[in-house]
Amino acid sequence: MPAPSLTQSIVVIDYNGGNLASAARALTRAAQDCSLAATVTITADPQAVRDADRIVLPGQGAFADCAAGLAARPGLRDAIVAATDAGTPFLGICVGMQLMAERGREHGVTPGFGWIAGEIALMDAPNLRLPQMGWNELAFTPGAHPLTDGLDADAHGYFVHSFALRGYDPADMVATTDYGGTVPAIVARGNRAGTQFHVEKSQKVGLRILSNFLRWTPMPGGPS
Question: 161 an active-site residue?
């Protein structure tokens, strides 16, 4: 019998959610940075999602549009749920992270995956422009979660968003940022995690987080 492959299979979910190629390139670079043998595939094939070692769900635009894009690909959402229920590590990026919540309130009320508590609503940022666009500092406890391993205390992420998670469970917060108040920046529960900012655009900080994700061995289900 041939030896099992040591190459990690990483899928980037293709559902017309945008930023797919950039996310795939960043994941390929992150794998190289941590000397990990990996294949990165952009796909909408439910079986490929079920078979993957890691799942990445990018997203940009409106919550409702991204949710509709997933629903339009037969079997894709069910495959993501089944794979992550079985313990496959998941990373949502920007709207991909927002879809982890119970619901979104952009263009009406749209159900999310319901993996973390809270809803996605318009940010309350008095005297600040929306969308929040640009670099902002991350606040996190060093050593508290594997996804932030090796980040400097003044690490910054690149944000582009007008809606954010509210009504959240503090236990799901890995990092926050400040934009007229506390804004969730990295969330995680069990083997499912997400970043509100664009890790693929966040240079060294983003690549470090992606490398950490590729080496992450979370417990499925409950708190990380």
Answer: no
Q: Are strands 119-122 and 139-140 parallel, antiparallel or unpaired?
A: unpaired
Per-residue confidence (pLDDT) for residue 3, from 0 to 100: 39
Cα 28 to chain centroid distance, Å, stands at: 16
Q: Which of 145, 156, 161, 198 is catalytic?
A: 198
Residues in the chain: 224
In the three-class reduction of DSSP (H, G, I as helix; E, B as strand; rest coil), residue 176 is classed as: strand
Task: Locate all alpha helices (DSSP H) within 7-93, ordered by sequence.
Answer: 20-33, 46-51, 63-71, 76-85
C-alpha atoms less than 13 angstroms from C-alpha of 110 in its C-beta half-sphere: 22
Of the candidates 94, 119, 145, 156, the residue annotated as catalytic is: 94
Statement: residue 107 has pLDDT above 90? no
Banded model confidence at residue 47, pLDDT cuts 50, 70, 90: very high
d(CA 209, CA 203): 10
Confidence check: pLDDT of 21 > 70:
yes
